[in-house]
Amino acid sequence: MAVMMQAFYWDCPREDQQEHNWWNFVSEHVEALGASGFNALWLPPVSKGASNTSMGYDPYDYFDLGDFDQKGGTKTWFGNKAELKALIDKAHEHGIGCYADMVLNHNSGADEEEKNPLDGQMRWTKFNPKSGEFPRDWNHFHPSRYEQVMMEGEHFAGFPHLCHRNPEVYAAMYKYARLLIEELGFEGFRFDFVKGFGAFMIGQLAKYRYVKDGNEFQPYVVGEYWSGSEDIDGWLDRVNAVTDNQIAAFDFPLRYKLKDLCDQPHYDMRNLTDGGCVLTKRPQHAATFVENHDMGDNAIVNDKLMAYSYIMVHEGYPCVFWHDYFNYGLGRPNSPNGIDALIAAHQKYAGGASDVLHVDPDLYIMQRVGWHDDNTDQPGLVYVLNNLGNQWSGTMVKTKWANQRFVPIAWDGHDEAHPDERTTDAEGRAEFPAPPRGYCIYVPA
Which residue range is the domain that position 175 belongs to? Predict the structure, then answer.
């Protein structure tokens, strides 16, 4: 089982007073994150953007990782190549991989405006990067002689959009991906704004035969398709049709359900079981999350640990947001009332299928039935989510375990009382409660 950390948030170098030093700052936390059970860090875009205080989602020079004096300075907003490599190496020492944020749809910060002869429009499309890698002009963008209209997808923020059918663009993206995997040591990619370009590009970068430490290496790949369940499902079909079926998507539909759960006092918990998210349709392709750098005014403001508890006990690959864990203090090491305790439950117990044992508008109870093989021993758990704001709530359910004692290992809510142990009868029945506006995870003792 695995848990990733989104190791940044919007303008994090400024907010944490770590301008041009973010790679070093993250590195200081790596040992503790490894001890807490994180297996991967999703890092922000590593290349020089349109300015040296950019978050990197406006790429200018893909091959300047903070070592060329351009766009206002030498380092990126996060640091330089040597500091990035040191962070990745330290992460590996503590059993943590790293995922690179890939922004391949659009560019920004061009050096000159020029006329596209195909439509007569003036655009900022002349790029002369100081790295000397991937200089480009109008023919590297849409419309191009290689493809006069966008192949598919949406435009982003009025930026020029790369034409991946141009072989020079295609070759540069391969070279960039190889730099990240084979030279820097990344384990995977998060692709930004995948609705803006063809699935074929991601498929090709995903299935390239990378060589890492002398062996062929297949990266983990997850896409940001910010849309509804059917749109994400369609994209997963398209992109996995040109790969070996390993590509995942962030589960935006589930995230919005979890926001409603946390921020609407009388949210109907039966909505959690209606199937309208990636997790319920294809859990092996679901990257689940509670918050990210793009949520802004849509951020969850109440009882956020209820949402984290949900993604940690269900299938999918859960992602924790740095700002929640550190700045909001929800990590809470050495406590049963925070994200660290939820990670421990996820890693040690949350195996096997999920069976919903009870659901009504205010109460959700689920069991993970457990999983055992030569490499894994996850005995399962019982999870209770209580939406009532004024009382503990639970009900009698029939689990798969007969005559079994259960102990609570992770809980939180609007009551600081310690939940009691539970024991099932000969038919596997017992009552499992959770605190008001909270959750409790019970595991076999």
Answer: 4-250
